[in-house]
Specification:
six-stranded mixed β-barrel; alpha+beta
Amino acid sequence: MNTEYYIARRYLLSRNRKFFSLSTTIAIGGVFVGVAAILIALSMMNGFQNELKRRILAGTPHIIVRRYFNEPLVKYRDIEKKLKKFSFIKASAPFMIQKSIIKNKERMDGIIIKGVIADQEKKITDVPVKIQEGSFDLNQGCVIGVELARTLQAQVGDTLIIALPFGEQPGFLPRAKKILLKGIFNLGYYDYDATMVYMDLKDVQSLFRMKGQVSGIEIKVSDIYNVPRYSKKIEKELGYPYRAQNWIESNHAIFAALKMEKIITFIVLTLIIVVAGFNIVGTLVNMVKKKTKEIGILRSFGFTSSRIMKIFIYHGTMIGIMGTILGLLFAFLACTALDNYQITLPGDIYFIETLPVEMSAGDFMITALAAIIITFLATIYPAKRATRLFTVDALRNE
């Protein structure tokens, strides 16, 4: 066994050699708390971010093909034929989207109408399988979100009025259409649940007098994280004036904010490990003072400055490694328990009923590496201080 490592390991124990010394235990505990706090916080943030991503994707196509300035597509069937050449496209469907007003009895609200073909929409988004009441039947009917239904106090079977508030020319009455509410969906994402109304594509084209035109073509692909590359291929194939907007671009601001929040959280909680590092510095400095006689004896046996320095570096690094391992284990067990026990959250605030926790191997590796590096750096100053003691001075002081 390496002599320096053996001595460093002995210094971890108390005088009776059965347990860790109090200073060692406190130093290990500081690293343990820091590592565990970082990983538990990051795992909860991963859970929230991934749950939000799943809920957004439940109602958002992976890619949308539209014209610049959102002009309507006329020969959209020709575009669909061109898209069939791409193997990464699993399904595609035309759609029309417009803003309007909806009314139920005395209650009104602004909405976004999405005209789709029901059978094709089932292959693109999860809205048809997220029906909470009724069914995804768009034949002379509509489907609305659960939050919009609460606002309108509407139930399945009610007759709603969808109106365009302005006529085409001054003096003309606004157009309106009575439509039966056939289903209420719940995606768990407020923006969709409070504003979206699904209708049959032909009904929307008739209401807005845009027969044979659509707003764009929505696409579902095989790999949702490769959509930037897929979008470029589609744009290259279709050419100007068509553009392919993917779900990452559409929600860039949300995910950028979540990513920044995660980075800031990691940096702030890393300060706990930095504090633990200073604790290790204090522990080693105090040990150097206590072990002055032992250092003098080691010097008299021919130990060089580098070997003395290694003893204290090994000692501090072992504290860091033990604290890191304990922190990793505790974080894993705590996250597993939080995920299994499903802690309830107020759904009207978070729109997520239970606390989502998702562990990431990358987070565990980066946190462990950061903890070990910080604790290693913390050992350098005390170790150098120990090498400044000369044999005669060390023994004379004792």
